[in-house]
Structure formats: C-alpha cells, structure tokens
Amino acid sequence: MKLRRTVCPCSMHCILISAVVIWSSIFFYLSFNLYGLQSKGKDINEERILALNYERALLDLAELKHENEMLRELLKDEKIEIVKRKKLIMKKQNDSNATRIKINNKFGKGTKRIERGKSEILNLLQSNGFSMKHEIARRELHNSIWELYYYLDSQLISTHNNNSKFINHIRNQLLSLLGQAAAFKNIDSAESWRANALANISAIFQNHFNKMQNPDDCKTARILTCDLNKQCGFGCQLHHVTYCFIVAYGSNRTLVLTDDGRTWNYAANGWNAAFLPITKCSFSEIFKLNENADDWGIGEHYKDKRIVKLPIIDSLSQRPAYLPLAIPQLYSAELQKLHSNSPAFFISQFIRYLMRPSAVFAKEIDLAVKKVPFDKGPIVGLQIRRTDKIHTEASFHDLDEYMKWAEDWFQIEEYRTRLSVKRRIYIATDDPEVFDEVLMKYPNYEIYGDPKISNMAQVHSRYTVESLIGIVIDIELLSRCIYLVCTFSSQVCRMGYELMQVRFGDAGDRFHSLDDIYYFGGQQAHEQVAVESYRAENDNEIDLKIGDIIGIAGNHWDGFSKGTNRRTGKKGLYPSYKAREKYITLDFP
C-alpha cells in the first residue's frame, strides 16, 4: 500500500487510534468465539473453519500492525518537518527584527523623526508634487516682485538719499516680500521634490550620452568631429564643445574631438589631462579606414554621411532647429513645471558630461572645496572680470555693484529664515587686487578665494596647465555657491551658473547679472510673449498687445527690457513683467 505524505498530523493521530480500536475489537471477538467453541464442544470441521478464520485474522492483524508502524514513521517525519518550519519562521522573524533595528539606527534617531519623514514623503508621493499651473504661477509672482524691486531700486532707492526713512521702509518691505516668496518655494518640502525629479531626468540624459558616445562598433558608427581649439578662452572653448555635443545629440551621432583633443592649447597632454575622454572612439582609428569627413549640412542627403565635420557656430550656414535655446519636446512639460530656466538646465547636462574631471583634476578640486566651508552656511559667489574683455565685450563694474546684490541676497535670506545669516562670499577674479579691496571695504564679510588663481588668469599666463586648473576650480566652486553675482557676458560666469543647475535642481533664479540675461553664444532667437498690453509713454518704448511675440535683446534690471515687437517691427523698451518666456520645443532622438 502506497501512502501519500500529504496527510496532516491531525489525520495521522485519528488513523492510528482507529487502527488500535479495530485491532482490539478483532482480538476480543476472536477470543470470545474460541472460548465459546471450547465450552460448547463443536465438531472438528467448525474448528478447522474457525482456525482458518483465526489465521486470516492474524494475517490481517499483522498487516494492520505493519501499517500502524508506517503511520508512526510518517507522523515522526511530519513532526520533524513541522519543527524545521517553526525554526525557519523564527529565524526570519529574528532577521526581520534585526533589519528593522538597523534601519531605525541608520535613518533616524527616534520614532517621531522617522514617522515625520514618512509622512512628508507620503504626502509628496500622493500629490506627485505640484501642478504645472501652480509652479508657473508661483514663479511668475516671484519674478514680478523682483521686477518691481528693480524698478523701485532704479527710480527711488539708488537715486535718492539712502538714509531716508521712506526709502528704507520701501526697500525693507520689498526685501521682506522677496523673502516670503522665496520661502513659498519650499512649502511642503517642494524643493526636495523638484530636486529629485530633476535628478531623475538628469540621470536619463547622462545614460543616453554614455550610450551615444560609446557605440558598439566605432567603425560603423555615425561620427561628428569637432575641433577643440577655437581661438578664444577656456569658457568659450568649453561652450564651443558643448555646441558640438548638442548638435551630435540632435543628429544622433557620436562626438569625436579632432585628434582626440591632444593638441589643446591649454594643456600639452590635451583634453584628457583635465577631463575624462568623451568617447571610446579614437579619431585616428576612424580615419585609418581612409574615409574623408564631409562638411556639415542638414537634410536627407547628409544623414547618409558617416563622418561629418562641424564648423564653429559663428560660421554655421545651415543651422539645425535644435540649437540652443531649444529643449526636447519629450521633457518640455516636466522641465517647464520643475525648472525656472529649462534651456539652462538642458545645456547644463552636456557640460556636466564634458567636465567630468580626470583623476589629477578631481584631486585638485577636492582640495580646493575643503578650503571653503560650504557646509557651514550659505556662500554667495562673485565672479569679477577685470582684464581682457573690459571695454570690448563688457563694461567695467565697481566692486560695490557686486556687493550690493550680495548683501541684498543675505537680507532676503534672513527675512526668509527669520535667522541671522553669516556673510560669506567666494571670489573668482582675474584681478588679485580685488581681495584687498573687499577686505578693506567689507570687514564684516568672510572672504574665500585664491589670489594665486587670479595671478594665473592674467593674459600672459592664461594658456598653461596651472591656469587651466585654476579656472576649472573657480567654475566648480562657483557652481557650489548658493547664489551668483556676476556678469553674464562672462563665459566663466555662465558656466558656473549652468553647473549650479546640476547641483541644486532648480537654480534658475539664483543669480544676479550686472549686464546680460542668460544666453548661449550663437543661439536661436530668444523670444517672449506679451501677457498684458502696454502703450508706449515715450519714443524709447514700444506698444504691446496681448499675444505679441517679442525678440528680447536684454533686461536692463530697472523694470524694463529691450526688444523687438515682431508684429510691428519696432524696437524699444517695455515693462519686463508684462512678458513671459516663449520656449522652443522640438523632438530630439
């Protein structure tokens, strides 16, 4: 008899008891019959029949006994299995308790703190942050308050006696209002939500770049070549390579530097002395196949060209639609919801990939970062350019202009936090005398920066490895500052601002430029849309109707911007708060 091992322990007990009862009944029954036969003296045939039945009963009894033994063994096995299961369950419970204790020790020092964190995360997950309408409305309100401050600062505060109680009252009330607007940005931990969401988008871009720059077969990959040595400074050259990278991304090609960047005028060892290689594809290996690079062009004819050479953006005759300030359609809704300057965030992704430091440069950057107490409190970054571009590309700006906006930020931060904030600034400059000037005029400020870097930034020593290390350190440290005051005509300033977007999430409004608005050299037309009508009050201004498209030339930071009304063709000033950004969105690969 074949027994199944799926019988439960309770059933085993029942079967065993039943078997014993049956066995006992048969025994007493047989004994009773035998006793009766002896007392009544039955004949020999009946005795034989009875003996035969008795023998059969004994055989059945033996078989039943054997089955009972098998049942006992089975029950014993089941008991062992149950004990094992109980031990396993206890072990899992103990492991679970140990893990829970580790988690509690690692992520919190008390149940209240853990539960508070869980509640905040749950609220964010349930609401999925704020809607696009909410975020855009919040930013527009904040921007309108700033434009009001620029206007009143220009008309009243900077032109009248600063000791006037009326002027001081206006200024303090506006700074307080800006502090409240800044605090509103982080209601319900919204800053963390934005930063995390933007970090996820950034990871997608970086992963795409990595695959794009490291194809399975470099011999068959579609290549875009770019000459690193544009005749300009470091910031200009990096933005030039960034432009090449954006075009490679838009045309679905792998970017390769001419000669792999080995002939860079900033470093004898080339690009790889400062940064990681941008691709595994070698320039020399590509041209070993005796292939020639075709000139850049757009259209179906050029899609079939395997190797294409890209000129500098200044001489680009056939301009693709995906040049800055365009952003990918796929991410446009999320970026416009999460970031106050979506084009800057998009451009920052390319610069982040390009500026991954080599081991030597990473060590130098780490040493420089440790000298500046970024973990002690907010630090405002000042990038002050004084040498090569003054009176050509940019105007001279006195130190006090920079410090005014730094002080404004610190006061706004105090209104936002309701706390006293230590004044700390980081200075990046090509004029070492600036450090002495700051120490003399602003003794209440802690000053950070390296005058040696300023000396190396002089025109006569600019194209050296030491100068290169210095300028990279300045850009990296500026990007770690909480706020920037600089001139956006400076490529270094814009690079610091761009890398801020990688570090802080939405840092689109964490700057004050003393001249230009943010731009990318060689960009497409930067346009705005009028959201309110305006009638010009003098010959320097232009009329606006709701819906008018304006080609913006710049913000004068006095409440007015300058631009061209596409409808009327007239150029002039218009109130900045009456217009909003018109984003360029299109499909990228």
TrEMBL record:
One of its GO terms (biological process) is N-glycan processing. Residues 385-386 are annotated as: Important for donor substrate binding. Pfam families: FUT8_N_cat, SH3_9. Keywords: Coiled coil, Glycosyltransferase, Membrane, SH3 domain, Transferase, Transmembrane, Transmembrane helix. Gene3D superfamilies: 3.40.50.11350, SH3 Domains. Residues 54-81 form a coiled coil. Residues 523-584 form the SH3 domain. One of its GO terms (molecular function) is galactoside 6-L-fucosyltransferase activity. Residues 220-514 form the GT23 domain. PANTHER family: ALPHA- 1,6 -FUCOSYLTRANSFERASE, ALPHA-(1,6)-FUCOSYLTRANSFERASE. This is BMA-FUT-8. The gene is bma-fut-8.
